[in-house]
Write a structure and sequence with these properties.
425 residues; alpha+beta; conserved putative lor/sdh protein from methanococcus maripaludis s2 fold; OB fold (Dihydrolipoamide Acetyltransferase, E2P); Helix Hairpins; 4 domains; 6-stranded antiparallel beta barrel; 4-stranded antiparallel β-sheet
């Protein structure tokens, strides 16, 4: 250790100068104060931001948990009803006219008149066209003149026969003369019959010059114009007529239903058939089953059936494609549920039933007996039970639910007219 007496003079002077320098306690305390304030501000800001983030996270997590974990799930629901439901066979069918006639002329001649409009509805016996009748009227007069001449000859032969018969009774003439006269009378009678036939045939040809409708129906487009020469029994038709009332629809059904349909027909039941537009949205007509075909199509495994429709409003048109639906039988007092309530797991069907007390759902298997698209007849539920029809995503046994009200029920009178509310439902 160096003693102060042994230090160099220079070092001694520095030490003296350092130790003798006064300390500024006021300046040091100011710096310490500012450092403390800065640390307090930084710590307070961090605590505030951390608390705000924690509150936000807590609020967000609480909101999510309240809705998804613990709160009831909103669903749509409907009750099970009891009623009748039909079992139908549906397929695409073709509207087929009961009668379709192609009209041709049965006599040759010039087409003088056309007495119909294209597309006109005509009745049986209405005059449609006229062929020049003058040649055929003249033929009738010729045949009638020939008939009158031969009738006069026959009358004269009968007079001679009476005279010969009286003379033969007096043995004035031989029997051969009487027999010859009798044969002449028979010959004249045959000639008269032949003439009468010619007259009748000529009159028929005159009738054929007036072309009339053989059925009630709708006339198609005109194929021959007046002034043309038409042949007798030609291959080209003058016009066509199609019967529209009644009209039929032909459509196939699977062979599995043949025995059941035949049994219904033999029992005398009138099976109903509905004809819908191709999009199944509009009912066109209602009819009844008329008959079945006599064989099964081996290529498709189906048999064709024909249904008849009155078609009073002409909604069905020949060769139109429609969706035909045959009512095979009706299930009485069935449990009817909305088809939207049916859920499927592999090959099984089930529904979610809402407990009226706890408002919790319970899955229950059901058996579907029949369906018409919007509704289904099932077993496994009871009338009056409430079934979930929408909102299945988070459902499981025991999940609590709340039934959403229909949109129209929540609408105010000022928001939409009553008619619009009904349409929304």
């Amino acid at each position: 250790m160096i003693s102060e007496s042994n230090r160099p003079s220079s070092l001694k002077s520095e030490v003296v100068s350092v130790e003798s320098k006064p300390v500024d306690h006021k300046s040091g305390s100011h710096w310490a104060t500012w450092i403390v304030v800065l640390l307090l501000l930084l710590g307070g800001g961090y605590l505030l931001s951390h608390r705000a983030a924690g509150v936000s996270t807590a609020k967000g997590s609480g909101k999510k948990g309240g809705k998804g974990a613990g709160g009831p799930i909103p669903v749509a629901a409907e009750t099970v009803k009891q009623g009748d439901m039909g079992i139908y066979i549906s397929n695409i069918g073709t509207v087929t006219a009961t009668y379709t006639v192609s009209i041709t002329s049965r006599v040759a001649g010039q087409l003088m008149e056309v007495d119909y409009r294209e597309g006109q509805l005509v009745h049986k016996g209405d005059v449609l066209a006229i062929i020049d009748p003058r040649p055929y009227t003249a033929a009738v007069e010729q045949a009638e003149g020939q008939l009158e001449r031969d009738q006069a000859l026959l009358k004269n032969a009968h007079t001679d026969l009476d005279r010969y018969t009286a003379a033969f009774a007096q043995h004035a003439i031989p029997e051969q003369t009487l027999a010859t006269q009798q044969a002449l009378v028979n010959q004249d009678e045959g000639t008269v019959k032949l003439d009468q036939g010619n007259v009748d045939a000529a009159k028929v040809n005159v009738d054929y010059t007036r072309i009339t409708s053989p059925i009630d129906g709708r006339v198609g487009l005109r194929l021959v114009d007046p002034g043309n020469i038409v042949p007798a029994n030609g291959t080209a038709a003058l016009l066509s007529i199609t019967q529209l009332q009644p009209i039929t629809v032909i459509f196939p059904i699977p062979e599995d239903f043949i025995s059941e349909v035949v049994a219904q027909v033999r029992a005398g039941h009138k099976l109903e058939v509905d004809a819908f537009e191709r999009d199944n949205s509009t009912l066109l007509a209602k009819g009844t089953l008329l008959t079945l075909d006599n064989q099964i199509d081996t290529g498709t495994g189906t048999v064709k059936i024909r249904a008849e429709f009155p078609n009073a409003d002409n909604h069905l048109f020949p060769n139109e494609f429609v969706n035909a639906r045959l009512l095979v039988r009706t299930l009485k007092n069935s449990n009817i549920v909305p088809s939207a309530a049916l859920q499927r797991n592999n090959d099984a069907s089930y529904v979610y039933v809402i407990d009226t007390g706890t408002k919790a759902v319970k899955s229950r298997p059901v058996t579907v007996l029949a369906t018409d698209g919007l509704q289904s007849a099932v077993t496994g539920v009871e009338p009056g039970e409430t079934l979930v029809t929408d909102g299945f995503d988070k459902l499981q046994d025991g999940t609590k639910v709340v039934v959403r009200q229909p949109r129209a029920a929540n609408a105010t009178p000022d928001s939409a007219p009553a008619a619009h509310k009904g349409h929304k439902q």
